[in-house]
Design a protein that fits this description.
Blueprint (H helix, E strand, L loop, with lengths): L2 H6 L1 H11 L15 E12 L2 E9 L9 E7 L4 E9 L10 E9 L2 E11 L12 E10 L9 E4 L8 E13 L2 E10 L4 E8 L5 E7 L8 E10 L2 E9 L15 E8 L4 E4 L3 E2 L7 E7 L5 E7 L15 E2 L1 E2 L3 E6 L2 E6 L21 E17 L3 E6 L2 E5 L9 E5 L5 E7 L2 E6 L4 E6 L10 E15 L4 E3 L1
Parallel strand pairs: 1-20, 4-32
Antiparallel strand pairs: 1-2, 2-3, 3-4, 5-6, 6-7, 7-8, 9-10, 10-11, 11-12, 13-14, 14-15, 15-16, 15-17, 18-19, 19-21, 19-22, 22-23, 24-25, 24-28, 24-31, 25-26, 26-27, 28-29, 29-30
Length: 470
Amino acid sequence: MDKKEYINRLDEQKKLQKMMNTDKYLLNFHLIPPSGWLNDPNGLCEFKGINHIYYQYTPFDATWGMKLWGHYTTADWITYKEYEPFIFSDIPEDQDGVYSGSAFIKDDKIYFYYTGNVKHIDKDYDYIVAGREQNTILITSNDGFTYKDKKVLFKNIDYPSDMSCHVRDPQIFEKNNFYYMVLGARDLKDVGCVLIYQSKDLITWNYHMRIVPEKKFGYMWECPNLIEIDNKMFLICCPQGVEQEGINYANIYQCGYFPIDLDLENKKYSLGKFKELDRGFDIYAPQTFLDENNRRIIIGWMGLPDTEYTNPTVKNGWQHALTMPRELIVKNNQLYQIPLVEFKNLRGKINKELNCNKENVELDFNFSNCKNLEILLRNEIKLIYKDNIFTLDLKECGYGRDKRSVYLTSLKELQIFLDNSSIEIFINSGEEVFTSRCYSKDLKTDLKILGEYELKDFSWYELKKIEINK
């Protein structure tokens, strides 16, 4: 879909938006698509004081379709501006979709790298070893809003010969006077891995090395981010094809990270144990970036592909959202996630009583000696802590989502954000996180709490709506 086709179809968007305006499940403090479908966040960056949030976007269909890059900006994470799509599908190498990628800032210029998707239909293909092109494409911009040309950097033939057709989602970082590109991949033996390329100029790239687990861990690693915080490195990725182990790896595809010791010069590495970033139902394809305050910010897709559960918003012309932006910090060699401090600006007055009965709220609990616990929200959402297992139970409001759990050594803190059709739970200052969509009949919080615990402190806030200007 090129820009001309997009403009010619804007009347279709207006019809979807009219339907959206009737939906009680529209989110108030999360970014959703202006219409249609949203998935992976892309190209996240702060450039000259403005945060740019691009995302996978299908404007005229709430289920699936041709992917563009949508675009929001914000300076304060509370007030946003919406723009027309940033990257259109308008060259042969991305004719079937502008897929995921990232941004890298150098010398007052933004370098955007993304995957151009091409799907051949001239005969029957398995689309694993044949029939698909995954082209790595570069554009550059001086402002984050405009660009001139697209440069194709890699085609399938340029990847190692033992790769399948699935090599995508480039991310760039700089280390020891070199630039490195990280690509998620699936090899011909159906082993998920990461490819790393090296460059001196951000344009000409040479294959450098790959990261592959000693023991197979899924058949494809999507959306890799290789990051460093406090001199510790982590490989964030989304492995597909990992089998469930008890309460772990319960989603169809995983979202998490490996601690990694990486020696790029000598092409050596050691992977630690994979840990899930989020234990909820709706989390995938997270992307991180460093803002101008040197915070490592992460945003994910509040959704998941190929699931059996559904979203009733489809009938009203839209589907999916982005998570709340969070800051990543390191504690005990583990990644913790905490909501950006800017979100405190959405708070109304502080309330201390337990009879919370508003719709869009933040709930903050501080426990001591918590042995077991049951919290009921909106008469349908249950949070249970028993025998060191914390469980989110959605029942009917999950539309096919049932239970997700995590083991905790103790439960000390809960920070819960309830939007019209989502819940985000931060446990023990971000040690564990649950992100999910939920569709309760009654949106009032109607908080009830039972169990054996000491409540050291409790407060709640009604949250204002973020402002989106067009």
